[in-house]
Each structure stands twice: as structure tokens, then as C-alpha cells.
Amino acid sequence: MSIKEYKQTVTFIIFGVIFIICLSYFLSFTNDEALPIYNPSSFNPELVDKTLQNKTENHIISDFTLINQNGKTITQNDYKNKIYVADFFFTRCPSICPIMTSNMVKIQTHFLNNNDVMLLSLSVTPGIDSVSVLRDYATKKGVIDSKWHITTGNKQHIYNLARKSYFAVTEDGDGGLQDFIHTPHFILVDKEKQIRGIYDGTKTQEIDRIIRDITKLTN
């Protein structure tokens, strides 16, 4: 083999390797499954209000009015054209809520410089979690006000959102004095107010998954 032929062969091999690497990268990217859009019929019926169980399309998060840690009224307009993660918690919770809040902090940190991503926490004990209580809680947990609203409000309104909008709990109830919900679920909502994923907010692997899924929605 002449020197010229040798150089041509080496060049061919190099370009072949580069082509295979690029093709593998392209295939791995295009094979990423698109995130599903969740409608009431997508869920275990136990998670869905009976009036919504047969709905197969066009489910979006209902309008809401809440009060955040700074006493500001929070509505859908504060999440317009945003991707966000919602959860339901209470400040006196000694079990799953501290883990969930720590994991929300991880998400906040990961997307700190991405203005398209926000967080929303709704108290399930709004009679106890006043604005001042939420303010202290937010400060202790490292909540960034522009990124994450920790909210209180009307109990029936919050519980109705949990059951009929976010599908966060299995238990029936009316949001009355004896009603109580407690759930580890994180709900991923896209810019069109559609649910794109539900995750166990207490598990590290689920937090890794939600971060990957948020990244997909931002690309």
C-alpha cells in the first residue's frame, strides 16, 4: 500500500468513526419519548373525581386564586407561559413534607437561571399556614420568591384543585373541617396548563426523572 493509499484509508476510517458517533447521538436524541399529555382517563380512576373519569382530552389546570408567602395574590397569570411543578404540603408535617420541600429546592437550584421554570406549593392546612407562617418557612427552606410561590388560601378551593385539576390524591372529600389530604406527588404542568407527569416527590430517582422531563419541555 502506498503512502497516498494509506492516508486515504486512515481518512476514510476517521470520517467513518465520526459519522457513527454523530448518527448514534442523533438516534439517541430522536428516540427520546415525548412526554404524554395527561387527561382524566389517563389516570387510575381512584385519582379522578367521578364527574371527570370519562374525559379523554383537553384537560387543563383550572384557574386558581391563592396567597403566597409575601401576602401576594397568586393566579394562573403568574404561571402564564411557564413550566412548573406543583405539590401539596403543610408546614407542620413531620414526615414526607420536609423531604418533598428539600427536593423542590433541588429543582429550584437546577433551573435557577431558567425563567421558564417555576414551582408552586399549596398548603393543605391553610387555616394554620398563614402568610407569616409561610414567610418563616420559606426563609428557612431557601425559597426564592421570584421562582417559587408557597401558598395558602381557601381550603375547599385548594382541595378541589388537588382532586379535580392536579389529580394528586385518591381520597374523596369535600374540603370541610374533617377533610384532610396528604400526598407525596409532584405534578409537572406545561405552558399550556396541561399535566405532563406525576412523580413521587420523596424519591431521588423520581427527582432525577422530573428534572430530565422538565428539560425536555424547555428544549
What does this structure look like?
The chain is an alpha/beta fold and 219 residues long. It folds into 2 domains: 1-31; 40-218, Glutaredoxin (3-Layer(aba) Sandwich). Helices cover 36% and strands 16% of the residues. The chain contains 5 helices and 7 strands; from the N terminus they run αβββαβαβαββα. It has helices at 3-30, 96-110, 131-141, 155-164, 204-218, and strands spanning 65-67, 73-75, 83-89, 117-123, 148-151, 185-189, 195-200. The strands form 2 sheets. Strands 5-4-3-6-7 form a 5-stranded mixed sheet. A two-stranded antiparallel ribbon has the order 1-2. Helix 3 links the parallel strand 4 and strand 5. The longest helix is centred in the N-terminal third of the chain and has 28 residues, at 3-30.
| Number of H- or I-type helical stretches | 5
Main sheet makeup: 5 strands, mixed
Chain-averaged pLDDT = 86
Secondary structure: number of strands: 7
Radius of gyration: 22 Å
The class by helix and strand makeup works out as alpha/beta
Low-confidence stretches: 19-32
Count of structural domains: 2
CATH architecture of the largest domain: 3-Layer(aba) Sandwich
SSE pattern, N- to C-terminal: HEEEHEHEHEEH
Task: Report the span from N to C terminus.
Answer: 49 Å
The oligomeric status of these chains comes to: single chain
Q: Which homologous superfamily in CATH is the superfamily of the largest domain?
A: Glutaredoxin
CATH class of the largest domain: Alpha Beta
- Rough shape? globular
Please give the share of residues in helix. Answer: 25-40%
Strand order of the largest sheet: 5-4-3-6-7
